Amino acid sequence: MSRYTLYGRPGSGSVAVQIALEELGASYERVWVGREEADVTAYRALNPTGRVPALGLPDGSVMFESAAILIHLSLAHPRAGVAPAAGTPAHARFLQWIVFMSANLYDAALRTYYSDRYSTLGSEGAESIRRRATEDYRRDLELIAPHLAPYVLGADYSLADGYLHMLAGWYPGEPAELHRRVPALAAHAGLVGARPAVAKAMADNAG
Ligand SMILES: N[C@@H](CCC(=O)N[C@@H](CS)C(=O)NCC(=O)O)C(=O)O
């Protein structure tokens, strides 16, 4: 029996959680949540936000919020080498970057792709929100880039890298242009993308 149930949609925020589950070698069932109203209504019984991802835990409870899920998985599997030991300065940096990415990069992605939800001024307002979100997105990717050495925490891969891989991959501009301007992000994308766990999760999302 699967220990975890991942609720997601192809190419959505569930990608980072799926990468994490693959990195852990965890047993999980992956459930795509439909977009029809009835599907979302049924899903709200598990996750009241109606958004993906959510993760069913081995005790049958369900949690949501991608950053919280990644932090939980790293703490629930302390010997898996996917995060520094809890309570250390390195773990403090792990928490810092995971929360930074959730609060800023993920938020910029939502303001970019759901800009109409952030405006009461119709499509004109939405367009200006989208433009600002894209600028914020680029600024925050550039803020992280100097810290990549080559991973978010330095020499060691952590679940923060899968998260960055997913979020940087959603950047609405031309990836080649972003990578030319921020070579550390290109190197990071190459390294992380080559990991078997990441490739497996990406292939599943590609269909
Ligand atoms: N803060 C949430 C954001 C989740 C989120 O907004 N997910 C998007 C997909 S990437 C979603 O479910 N969108 C569908 C909708 O909002 O209707 C998290 O980090 O998990």
Strands side by side in the biggest sheet: 2-1-3-4
Bound molecules: glutathione
Number of helices: 9
The biggest beta sheet is recorded as: 4 strands, mixed
Tell me the helix content: 55-70%
The level-1 CATH class of the largest domain: Mainly Alpha
Poorly predicted parts: none
Measured distance between first and last alpha carbons: 24 Å
Range of strand content: 5-15%
Question: Within the CATH hierarchy, at the fold level, what is the topology of the largest domain?
Answer: Glutathione S-transferase Yfyf (Class Pi), Chain A, domain 2
Number of strands: 4
Order of helices and strands: EHEHEEHHHHHHH
Outline, from the CA principal axes? globular
Structure in words:
- This protein has 207 residues and is α+β, with helices and mostly antiparallel strands.
- 57% of the residues lie in helices and 8% in strands.
- It has helices spanning 14-24, 37-44, 66-76, 89-113, 122-144, 159-169, 175-181, 183-193, 196-206; strands at residues 4-8, 28-32, 54-56, 62-64.
- Helix 4 (89-113) runs antiparallel to helix 5 (122-144), helix 6 (159-169) crosses helix 8 and helix 7 (175-181) packs across helix 8.
- It starts with a strand and ends with a helix.
- The mean pLDDT is 96.
- Bound molecules: glutathione.
- Glutathione binds next to helix 3 and helix 4.
